[in-house]
Amino acid sequence: MMEKSFVMMKPDAVSRRLMGKILTRFEEKGLQIVAIKMLSIDEDLAKEHYGEHVEKPFFNDLVSYITSSPSLAMIIKGDDAISLIRKMVGATNPKEADLGTIRGDFAIDMGRNVIHASDSAKSAEREISLFFNDNEICDYSIIDNSWIYE
Ligand code: IDP
Ligand code: MG
Fold this sequence. Notes:
Structural class: alpha+beta
Number of helices: 8
Largest sheet: 4 strands, antiparallel
Shape: globular
Strand order of the largest sheet: 2-3-1-4
Number of strands: 4
Order of helices and strands: EHHEHHEHHEHH
Distance between the termini: 13 Å
Helix content: 40-55%
Bound molecules: inosine-5'-diphosphate, magnesium ion
């Protein structure tokens, strides 16, 4: 099923100049970027985005990390994009993430794991509306789609 996922390069990815490399992975896979923007996430947005973790011991550090410097927010579209992108991103703990995944290849610490991706259709919908207005989402057709999809 065609899906849209919310994906975000975290402050470490942006500041380590990894944006191009990470974006290339999604493009080369055949996925489609339908929205993208750099933004400095404020405390309110960080707490809202990570609301499910409010009781966790790492919550304050997570909010500091995410608000420390700009992030790159995106919406990425494709067939089964939500679970596909979670696979490309790899396990939350980069030390356990398989090599070949984004976290496995570019990160070491859990609190510096370079990227966020929605974990379900429900989260994707919530996160997309938290970060983007409808008029920031571009629905355009891509000429090579018949070489990506059967
Ligand atoms: P996910 O990003 O793979 O979905 P979640 O469990 O939703 O993982 O956690 C959100 C983010 O919180 C993680 O990506 C990571 O940056 C941070 N985090 C999760 N667990 C820990 C921890 O035990 N220590 C430090 N940071 C953590
Ligand atoms: Mg999560």
